[in-house]
Design goal:
8 strands
Length: about 210
C-alpha cells in the first residue's frame, strides 16, 4: 500500500506492508544510486516480513528516490529529520532496518531497536561518490552536504544488531555469504538472501519489541 508522511520540509511517500498493528520495521534505504540498486531487494525483505506477521515501511527521503525535492536541496539534516518523522508517523514501536549508508540517517528516530545491513560510514560514502564522479558519473551533491556526510557514522547505541556479508571483514553479529547487490551496475534481486535476512530481522524485532 502506498501512503505519505509529513515532515518539517513537506510530504514524502512510503510503501507499507503487512499488518497495521504491532511493531513495524522501517527501512532506512541507502543514499544516492545505491537506493535505486537495492529498492526491489528492500521490498522483498518487507514482503517476507509481512509473511511472518510483521509490518514494514519503506519511506522515500527528501531528494532521494521518487521524492519531488531536488537532490541538491537536501542533506544529512533533512534526511534525519524526515526519517524521524516517518518513524513517528507510524504510531507503533519501530525497529529500524538500515541498508548501507541508511545507517547514517536514523540518529533522531525514536526506536526500540536497530538492525544494520553492511553499515557504511559517511567517509566511505564520500569516497564512493568521488570515485563515481571521477569515472564520469554525475554528482548533484553540494560541498556542504559532502562535508557533513564525511563526519557521519552509524548509531552504535544498543540495542543494535549488525549483519554483514562474507566478504566484509568488519565486526558483525551475523555474517552471510552472498553477493552485494549494491555493487551491481544495474538494480538486482536476491530472493534467497531476502528470506534469510527477513528471518534474522523478524527474530530481532520480536526480541526488541515483542509481537
Amino acid at each position: 500500500m502506498i501512503g505519505h508522511y509529513d515532515w518539517a520540509g513537506g510530504r514524502e511517500a512510503w510503501l507499507r506492508f503487512g499488518p497495521d498493528h504491532g511493531p513495524v520495521v522501517v527501512i532506512a534505504p541507502p543514499l544516492f544510486e545505491e537506493a535505486n540498486r537495492t529498492r526491489a531487494f528492500a521490498v522483498a525483505i518487507l514482503r517476507a516480513l509481512a509473511a511472518r506477521g510483521i509490518g514494514g515501511m519503506l519511506p522515500d527521503l527528501p531528494g532521494q528516490g521518487d521524492s519531488m525535492v531536488a537532490t541538491e536541496q537536501a542533506g544529512l539534516d533533512e534526511w534525519r529529520q524526515a526519517f524521524a518523522a516517518a518513524c513517528d508517523a507510524t504510531g507503533r514501536p519501530v525497529v529500524v532496518a538500515s541498508i548501507r549508508s541508511g545507517a547514517l540517517v536514523d540518529w533522531d528516530a525514536q526506536v526500540v531497536g536497530r538492525w544494520h545491513l553492511a553499515p557504511q560510514s559517511g567517509a566511505r560514502l564520500v569516497v564512493e561518490l568521488d570515485r563515481i564522479q571521477r569515472m564520469g558519473g554525475t554528482n548533484a551533491t553540494s560541498d556542504d552536504v559532502l562535508a557533513g556526510l564525511s563526519a557521519a557514522v552509524a548509531v552504535t547505541e544498543h540495542p543494535v544488531r549488525v549483519v554483514r556479508l562474507g566478504s566484509d571483514p568488519a565486526p558483525a553479529d551475523l555474517r552471510i555469504d552472498a553477493a552485494p547487490l549494491w555493487r551491481r551496475a544495474e538494480p538486482g534481486q536476491d530472493l534467497d538472501l531476502a528470506e534469510t535476512l527477513a528471518d534474522d530481522l523478524a527474530g530481532w524485532t520480536v526480541a526488541c519489541a515483542g509481537r
